[in-house]
TrEMBL record:
Annotated InterPro entries: Methanogen_methyltrans (IPR052024), UROD/MetE-like_sf (IPR038071), Uroporphyrinogen_deCOase (IPR000257)
One GO term of the biological process aspect: porphyrin-containing compound biosynthetic process
PANTHER family reported in the protein's UniProt record: METHYLCOBAMIDE:COM METHYLTRANSFERASE MTBA
Annotated Pfam families: URO-D
Entry protein name: Uroporphyrinogen decarboxylase (URO-D)
GO terms assigned for molecular function: uroporphyrinogen decarboxylase activity
Domain of life: Archaea
Native source organism of the sequence: Methanococcus maripaludis (strain C5 / ATCC BAA-1333)
Uroporphyrinogen decarboxylase (URO-D) domain location: 18-236
Length: 287
């Protein structure tokens, strides 16, 4: 029987108005200024009584570094693409590699570094390829090109896969103890089983394997929707790990403390770290 996963992450992302007022938070400064980003990450950790600090607070950082034009938003609406940077595949193929030394993506890495230096356990949230592309070009055009020019699109997607791996490894090098990986726009219920198997799911697995082969001490937390789809499509098997920790975050913290090898876990939401674990079980990818 196929597994299911219900995503309620949007309900966990709301920033209470009273918190904004009491802490004098400025938007979009928390997305554009290093000290504000670090401070806001700590404020949210304290507010939620969490064990971890998280950055960034949107899904547009990687896309922006690849040329997306972003509206930085305010306290009600976060950063989002304001117009598409590429109108067709020819334009998309002119895309330049991510520059990790400048721009907002550099600031996110610096925030990870600052959080680590101040004694925090930082989580770097990383988006998958289809979510990134959804901010770069119109979805209708992307899927049309995928059907008409699969070889060229595969070349581009391989490039994007390598760029995501580069970013993940830099995040770990800068102090991220957990990589939270998801691809909401590439989930199986949106793209369908065929596109998931051939593209978004396949690339997700490639990214996981490449990071695991190069990094020996981190937690890769795969979004529950992605991990369940990977298992249902026969691309991974997951083993249950029983634990007695009072919260999901505490259980992940214990995995970090074991300090043995890279662990890939899923079938849950990293944003639920403050809640009790269903059936006292963590799910780890089977070796």
């Amino acid at each position: 029987m196929k597994k299911t996963f219900s995503c309620i992450s949007d309900n966990l992302e709301n920033i209470p108005k009273e918190l904004i007022a009491s802490k004098n938070l400025k938007f979009p400064d928390i997305h554009e200024n290093l000290s504000d980003m670090v401070e806001f990450s700590k404020i949210m950790k304290e507010h939620k009584k969490d064990l971890f600090c998280r950055v960034p607070f949107c899904m547009t950082v990687e896309a922006e570094s690849l040329g997306a034009k972003i509206n930085m938003g305010d306290e009600k609406y976060g950063p989002r693409a304001k117009e598409y940077a590429f109108k067709n595949l020819d334009e998309l193929e002119t895309i330049k590699p991510i520059d990790l030394t400048s721009g907002r993506i550099r600031m996110v890495l610096d925030a990870i570094q600052e959080l680590k230096k101040s004694g925090e356990l930082p989580i770097l949230t990383v988006e998958g390829p289809i979510t990134i592309i959804s901010s770069l070009m119109e979805s209708r055009i992307f899927y049309k090109e995928l059907r008409k020019n699969p070889e060229r699109m595969n070349t581009f997607l391989n490039f994007l896969e390598d760029e995501i791996v580069k970013y993940v490894l830099s995040g770990i090098e800068n102090g991220a103890k957990i990589i939270s990986f998801g691809d909401p726009a590439g989930s199986i219920d949106i793209v369908g089983p065929k596109v998931f198997r051939e593209y978004s799911g396949k690339i997700a697995k490639n990214i996981i394997e490449k990071v695991k082969s190069k990094e020996k001490n981190c937690i890769i937390h795969v979004c529950g929707k992605t991990s369940v789809s990977l298992e249902n499509e026969g691309m991974y098997e997951f083993n249950p790990i029983n634990c007695n920790s009072e919260t999901y975050g505490k259980a992940i913290y214990e995995l970090i403390r074991e300090n043995t090898k890279t662990k890939i876990i899923g079938h849950n939401c990293i944003k639920k770290s403050i809640y009790k674990i269903p059936k006292n079980t963590i799910w780890e990818i089977k070796e």
